[in-house]
Amino acid sequence: MFFFPIGDDNTQRRITPFVNYVLIAINVLVYMYQWGHDEFTLGYSVVPAEITQGRDLIGPQRGIQGLQLADSPSPIYLTLLSAMFMHGGLLHLGGNMLYLWIFGDNVEDRVGHGRYVLFYVICGAAAALAQVWINPASRIPMLGASGAIAGVMGAYLVMFPHSRVLTLVPIFFFIELIEVPAVFFLGLWFLLQFLYGVGSLSVAAEQDVGGVAFWAHVAG
Protein backbone atom coordinates (compact mmCIF):
# COMPACT_ATOMS: atom_id res chain seq x y z
CA MET A 1 0.00 0.00 0.00
CA PHE A 2 1.20 3.52 -0.75
CA PHE A 3 0.72 4.71 2.86
CA PHE A 4 2.18 3.31 6.05
CA PRO A 5 0.30 3.06 9.38
CA ILE A 6 2.13 3.81 12.61
CA GLY A 7 -0.70 3.95 15.15
CA ASP A 8 -4.31 4.85 15.87
CA ASP A 9 -6.24 7.22 18.11
CA ASN A 10 -8.08 4.42 19.89
CA THR A 11 -5.92 4.28 23.03
CA GLN A 12 -8.48 3.74 25.79
CA ARG A 13 -8.44 0.16 27.11
CA ARG A 14 -10.21 -1.74 29.85
CA ILE A 15 -7.72 -4.63 29.95
CA THR A 16 -4.05 -5.18 29.18
CA PRO A 17 -3.85 -6.86 25.74
CA PHE A 18 -1.34 -9.47 26.88
CA VAL A 19 -2.64 -12.05 24.38
CA ASN A 20 -1.75 -9.70 21.54
CA TYR A 21 1.71 -9.25 23.03
CA VAL A 22 2.13 -13.02 23.33
CA LEU A 23 1.05 -13.56 19.71
CA ILE A 24 3.63 -11.03 18.54
CA ALA A 25 6.33 -12.67 20.69
CA ILE A 26 5.50 -16.15 19.37
CA ASN A 27 5.71 -14.96 15.77
CA VAL A 28 9.10 -13.34 16.41
CA LEU A 29 10.48 -16.38 18.26
CA VAL A 30 9.29 -18.82 15.59
CA TYR A 31 10.87 -16.67 12.89
CA MET A 32 14.16 -16.68 14.81
CA TYR A 33 13.98 -20.47 14.99
CA GLN A 34 13.39 -20.62 11.25
CA TRP A 35 16.89 -19.26 10.62
CA GLY A 36 18.92 -22.19 9.38
CA HIS A 37 15.98 -24.61 9.71
CA ASP A 38 14.66 -24.80 6.16
CA GLU A 39 13.18 -28.26 6.71
CA PHE A 40 11.09 -26.91 9.58
CA THR A 41 9.88 -23.98 7.46
CA LEU A 42 8.97 -26.18 4.50
CA GLY A 43 7.47 -28.97 6.59
CA TYR A 44 5.24 -26.80 8.76
CA SER A 45 3.98 -24.49 6.02
CA VAL A 46 0.61 -25.10 4.38
CA VAL A 47 0.94 -26.93 1.06
CA PRO A 48 -2.47 -26.81 -0.68
CA ALA A 49 -1.97 -30.16 -2.42
CA GLU A 50 -1.25 -31.81 0.94
CA ILE A 51 -4.43 -30.39 2.46
CA THR A 52 -6.64 -31.44 -0.46
CA GLN A 53 -5.10 -34.92 -0.63
CA GLY A 54 -4.91 -35.33 3.14
CA ARG A 55 -1.37 -36.72 3.08
CA ASP A 56 2.26 -35.66 3.35
CA LEU A 57 4.04 -35.03 0.05
CA ILE A 58 7.79 -35.36 -0.22
CA GLY A 59 9.76 -34.31 -3.29
CA PRO A 60 10.65 -31.38 -5.54
CA GLN A 61 8.34 -28.40 -5.66
CA ARG A 62 7.17 -27.14 -8.99
CA GLY A 63 8.07 -23.49 -9.36
CA ILE A 64 10.81 -23.43 -6.70
CA GLN A 65 13.89 -24.97 -8.20
CA GLY A 66 16.26 -26.82 -5.91
CA LEU A 67 13.97 -27.12 -2.88
CA GLN A 68 12.27 -30.22 -1.53
CA LEU A 69 9.05 -30.57 0.40
CA ALA A 70 9.96 -31.72 3.90
CA ASP A 71 8.19 -33.97 6.41
CA SER A 72 5.05 -32.33 7.77
CA PRO A 73 3.26 -32.91 11.10
CA SER A 74 0.59 -35.57 11.36
CA PRO A 75 -2.25 -35.00 10.83
CA ILE A 76 -1.35 -32.75 7.91
CA TYR A 77 -4.09 -30.28 8.87
CA LEU A 78 -1.96 -29.10 11.81
CA THR A 79 -0.03 -27.01 9.29
CA LEU A 80 -3.09 -24.73 9.13
CA LEU A 81 -2.12 -23.72 12.68
CA SER A 82 1.66 -23.82 12.49
CA ALA A 83 1.93 -21.84 9.25
CA MET A 84 0.21 -18.79 10.72
CA PHE A 85 3.14 -18.28 13.09
CA MET A 86 5.89 -18.41 10.43
CA HIS A 87 7.16 -15.80 7.97
CA GLY A 88 9.20 -15.65 4.81
CA GLY A 89 11.44 -12.72 5.71
CA LEU A 90 12.01 -9.76 8.00
CA LEU A 91 9.81 -7.41 5.97
CA HIS A 92 7.04 -10.00 5.96
CA LEU A 93 7.32 -10.41 9.73
CA GLY A 94 7.76 -6.69 10.47
CA GLY A 95 4.79 -5.59 8.38
CA ASN A 96 2.47 -8.20 9.88
CA MET A 97 3.51 -7.48 13.46
CA LEU A 98 3.07 -3.75 12.95
CA TYR A 99 -0.53 -4.24 11.82
CA LEU A 100 -1.17 -6.68 14.67
CA TRP A 101 0.30 -4.20 17.19
CA ILE A 102 -1.88 -1.33 15.92
CA PHE A 103 -5.22 -3.11 15.54
CA GLY A 104 -5.06 -6.24 17.70
CA ASP A 105 -5.02 -4.61 21.13
CA ASN A 106 -8.33 -2.82 20.56
CA VAL A 107 -10.06 -5.97 19.30
CA GLU A 108 -8.78 -7.97 22.28
CA ASP A 109 -9.97 -5.23 24.61
CA ARG A 110 -13.46 -5.42 23.15
CA VAL A 111 -13.93 -9.22 22.96
CA GLY A 112 -11.71 -10.43 25.82
CA HIS A 113 -8.60 -12.62 25.97
CA GLY A 114 -10.12 -16.05 25.34
CA ARG A 115 -12.39 -15.10 22.48
CA TYR A 116 -9.58 -13.10 20.89
CA VAL A 117 -7.31 -16.16 20.74
CA LEU A 118 -10.10 -18.28 19.28
CA PHE A 119 -11.01 -15.59 16.76
CA TYR A 120 -7.38 -15.16 15.68
CA VAL A 121 -6.83 -18.88 15.11
CA ILE A 122 -10.13 -19.36 13.26
CA CYS A 123 -9.39 -16.42 10.95
CA GLY A 124 -5.90 -17.72 10.20
CA ALA A 125 -7.12 -21.23 9.40
CA ALA A 126 -10.06 -20.00 7.33
CA ALA A 127 -7.77 -17.69 5.37
CA ALA A 128 -5.38 -20.54 4.55
CA LEU A 129 -8.27 -22.79 3.50
CA ALA A 130 -9.52 -20.07 1.16
CA GLN A 131 -6.16 -19.96 -0.58
CA VAL A 132 -6.16 -23.77 -0.78
CA TRP A 133 -9.60 -23.63 -2.39
CA ILE A 134 -8.34 -21.14 -5.01
CA ASN A 135 -5.32 -23.27 -5.97
CA PRO A 136 -5.89 -26.79 -4.59
CA ALA A 137 -3.17 -28.58 -6.57
CA SER A 138 -0.34 -26.19 -5.64
CA ARG A 139 2.78 -27.66 -4.06
CA ILE A 140 4.11 -24.22 -3.11
CA PRO A 141 4.37 -23.80 0.70
CA MET A 142 2.25 -21.00 2.16
CA LEU A 143 3.05 -19.32 5.46
CA GLY A 144 2.44 -16.13 7.40
CA ALA A 145 0.11 -14.47 9.88
CA SER A 146 -1.48 -12.22 7.25
CA GLY A 147 -4.78 -14.09 7.07
CA ALA A 148 -5.29 -14.05 10.84
CA ILE A 149 -4.30 -10.38 11.03
CA ALA A 150 -6.66 -9.57 8.15
CA GLY A 151 -9.44 -11.01 10.33
CA VAL A 152 -8.34 -8.78 13.19
CA MET A 153 -8.39 -5.78 10.85
CA GLY A 154 -11.89 -6.69 9.71
CA ALA A 155 -13.05 -6.90 13.33
CA TYR A 156 -11.45 -3.53 14.05
CA LEU A 157 -13.29 -2.02 11.09
CA VAL A 158 -16.64 -3.31 12.37
CA MET A 159 -16.02 -2.35 16.00
CA PHE A 160 -14.24 0.98 15.54
CA PRO A 161 -15.29 2.44 12.18
CA HIS A 162 -14.95 6.01 13.45
CA SER A 163 -11.37 5.62 14.72
CA ARG A 164 -8.53 7.25 12.85
CA VAL A 165 -5.26 5.65 11.78
CA LEU A 166 -2.07 7.71 12.06
CA THR A 167 -0.42 7.22 8.69
CA LEU A 168 2.75 8.18 6.84
CA VAL A 169 1.77 9.33 3.36
CA PRO A 170 4.36 10.13 0.64
CA ILE A 171 3.46 13.32 -1.24
CA PHE A 172 5.88 13.89 -4.11
CA PHE A 173 9.29 14.18 -2.39
CA PHE A 174 7.89 14.67 1.10
CA ILE A 175 6.32 12.41 3.71
CA GLU A 176 3.30 13.72 5.58
CA LEU A 177 1.92 12.37 8.86
CA ILE A 178 -1.89 12.43 8.72
CA GLU A 179 -4.85 10.77 10.40
CA VAL A 180 -6.91 8.64 8.02
CA PRO A 181 -10.40 7.36 8.94
CA ALA A 182 -10.20 3.66 9.78
CA VAL A 183 -13.07 2.89 7.41
CA PHE A 184 -11.09 4.43 4.55
CA PHE A 185 -7.72 2.91 5.45
CA LEU A 186 -8.99 -0.63 6.03
CA GLY A 187 -11.57 -0.45 3.26
CA LEU A 188 -8.89 0.52 0.75
CA TRP A 189 -6.61 -2.23 2.03
CA PHE A 190 -9.35 -4.80 1.48
CA LEU A 191 -10.17 -3.46 -1.98
CA LEU A 192 -6.52 -3.69 -3.05
CA GLN A 193 -6.22 -7.26 -1.77
CA PHE A 194 -9.38 -8.20 -3.67
CA LEU A 195 -8.18 -6.63 -6.92
CA TYR A 196 -4.73 -8.23 -6.63
CA GLY A 197 -6.42 -11.54 -5.84
CA VAL A 198 -8.58 -11.34 -8.97
CA GLY A 199 -5.48 -10.52 -10.99
CA SER A 200 -3.67 -13.57 -9.59
CA LEU A 201 -6.39 -16.02 -10.62
CA SER A 202 -5.18 -16.35 -14.21
CA VAL A 203 -1.60 -16.92 -13.05
CA ALA A 204 -2.68 -19.54 -10.51
CA ALA A 205 -4.66 -21.36 -13.17
CA GLU A 206 -1.75 -21.51 -15.59
CA GLN A 207 1.21 -22.36 -13.39
CA ASP A 208 2.26 -23.33 -9.91
CA VAL A 209 4.17 -20.27 -8.72
CA GLY A 210 4.75 -18.57 -5.40
CA GLY A 211 3.76 -15.08 -4.39
CA VAL A 212 1.44 -13.22 -2.04
CA ALA A 213 -1.63 -15.19 -0.94
CA PHE A 214 -4.10 -12.38 -1.64
CA TRP A 215 -7.16 -14.59 -1.27
CA ALA A 216 -6.02 -15.57 2.21
CA HIS A 217 -6.02 -11.85 3.05
CA VAL A 218 -9.49 -11.35 1.58
CA ALA A 219 -10.91 -14.40 3.35
CA GLY A 220 -9.36 -13.36 6.65
Molecular structure report:
This protein is α+β, with helices and mostly antiparallel strands and 220 residues long. Helix content is 55%, strand content 14%. The protein is built from nine helices and five strands. The protein has helices at residues 18-34, 38-43, 48-53, 79-82, 90-111, 113-134, 146-159, 182-206, 214-219, and strands at residues 4-8, 59-61, 64-69, 164-171, 174-181. The chain has a three-stranded antiparallel sheet with strand order 1-4-5. Strands 2-3 form a two-stranded antiparallel sheet. β2 and β3 (64-69) form a beta hairpin. α1 (18-34) runs antiparallel to α5 (90-111), α5 packs across α6 (113-134) and α6 packs across α7 (146-159).
Helix content: 55-70%
Distance between the termini: 18 Å
Beta-sheet strand percentage?
Answer: 5-15%
Poorly predicted tracts of residues: 204-211
Order of helices and strands: EHHHEEHHHHEEHH
Q: Please state the average pLDDT score.
A: 81
Number of strands: 5
- Please state the overall shape, judged from the principal axes of the Cα atoms: globular
Rg, nearest Å: 18 Å
Strand order of the largest sheet: 1-4-5
Classification by helices and strands:
alpha+beta
- Alpha plus pi helix count: 9
Q: Main beta sheet: strand number and arrangement?
A: 3 strands, antiparallel
